[in-house]
Structures are given as structure tokens and as C-alpha cells.
Amino acid sequence: SFSTDAVATDPGIPAYRFTAGLSAAHVGDIQAARDFMLESARADDFPTSWLNVARLDTDLGDVNGARASLMRAMRLGYQQPQIAFNVSSILAELGDHEGAITALAAAFEAAPGFVSDPYWQNPLRADVYDAAVTIALNSLPPSTGYQLALEAGRLDIARALASKVEGRFGHVAVLEVEAWSGNQSAFDELHALARADPLQDKVVARCRRIAARSQEADWAGPIRWDCDGAGFPASLFIVRVSTSPATRVVLPGPNSSWHIQYVYRRAGPIDELVPGLVHLAVVFL
């Protein structure tokens, strides 16, 4: 194939081995995929490479190798929700319940909105999910923790954390929690603040998140809301389980996308995950 020809022509470039590993994995040559990917991972310590190696090691039945690769992936990838989430899934598959919880908590800390993904409604995932949410809530500062609590449906905790948010955004946090609960006057005040300063991304983003919440099927508020006149912050998104990407995906945390292009100045695949791993994507609100 083109990828293996590239490795043969210039074996010193890890990007070629990474691409060859992906190619081999997608045609079912798991051993070759693992060997190519491991060589690439050892060369540049890219967290996604180690995650791929772990998935391939698991498929090959090498439990010890998989565990070691997962730890290498998390060394730099714990702030990247796609890495941490998949590490959690593989650890659960390997029977490491506590490790799965810890890794999933890291994913939630990096992307608090991920906790409201319908993916978690499966009862089989409830045990790891609930414990990971609790760990994340205990780790995050109130300014972020209240948002995670809202997304997780833990309104009492959200109220308690919002009351601890300091500075000018403390009142915004309190308004958001009450609006999330369906309080019309709280939303009206939040909307008015966003309209008064449409360039204040943080306030506008929170207003638009509440408006998006009011459009969801389980909304119990009085009416559907919108944030007309309040601007459109590019930073407003939530993370969701997704299909294989058709374009580059940029997720919260350190931006590891375009690894091959940035580091090696080479064209590379859009989808960097081997089969068996779950993709995440941002959904703009």
C-alpha cells in the first residue's frame, strides 16, 4: 500500500509508521498495525498513538501490554476527553473498574458538557458514570463544577457550587442554575445581561446553553427560550459521542489534532483512531 511504501522509502519518519498502522488496522492485520503504531508511539509519545496501541494490544490478548500503553496514553492525554474516555472504556473491558472511573472522571473534567450525552443513559454504564461524575465534581473549581453538575442533573450540587463562584460571574452562575430549573425570571435576567454586552462570551455562552437546554425533549420549563440579540460565541459547544469524522475535529484540552501536519509537515489521515475506539466530536449550540 501507499503507507507501507512510504515507510520503506523513509523508515525514520514516525508519521509514516502511524499511517501504516492505521491502514493495517482497517484491513484487519492487527499484528502489523500494532507493530507500526508502537514504533510511532515510541518515537514521539503522541497520546493517540499509545491509545491505538492499547486497543490493538487488547485485541491481540496482550493485557499487560495494553495496560502499559494506556498509562502512556494518559501521561499526556488525560486532558484530552477522547483519550481519557477511550482509556476508561478499555480499562473497564480489562476488568479495572477503579481505573476506568478515574480515567472517565478526567474526560468529564476536560469536557463537562459530555456528562449529558444520551450515551450515558444506558444502565450498564451507570456505575462507572456516577462515580466518575462525583470524582470530577470534587476536583473541579466551583466556576466549572456547577456547570458539570447541571449537565449531570445534580441541581442541588449545582446550586451549592454556583453560590461559591467568586467575582462578576457569581451572579451569572446563580441565574443559570435557576434558569436551568425552569425559572422564567432568572432566564430573563440572564438574557438581558447577555444582550447588554453581546461581546462578553462567557455570559452569552451560558445564556445560549440554557436556551439550548430548553429545546431538549425532557425540558420541564414553562416555554422554549432563545437568546436573540446576545451574540454567538464560538466557544459554546458540548462534547458528544460521534461517528468517524469527515473533517478535522478539535476537542477541548490541548489541541492534538493535525499531529502529523504540525509535527512532520506531512499529509495525514483525518481519522486517527483504529477500529474499536469511540470518536468524540463537538456539537455547537
Relevant terms:
single chain; 285 residues; mainly alpha; 14 helices; elongated
Largest sheet: 2 strands, antiparallel
> Any idea what the radius of gyration is?
21 Å
Span between termini: 41 Å
What fraction, in percent, of the residue positions are helical?
A: 55-70%
Order of adjacent strands in the largest pleated sheet: 1-2
Number of helical runs?
14
Strand content: under 5%
In terms of per-residue confidence, which ranges show pLDDT below 50 for 5 or more consecutive residues? Answer: none
Number of strands: 2
Q: H/E element string?
A: HHHHHHHHHHHHHEHE
Structural class: mainly alpha
Report mean pLDDT, rounded to a whole number: 91
Shape: elongated
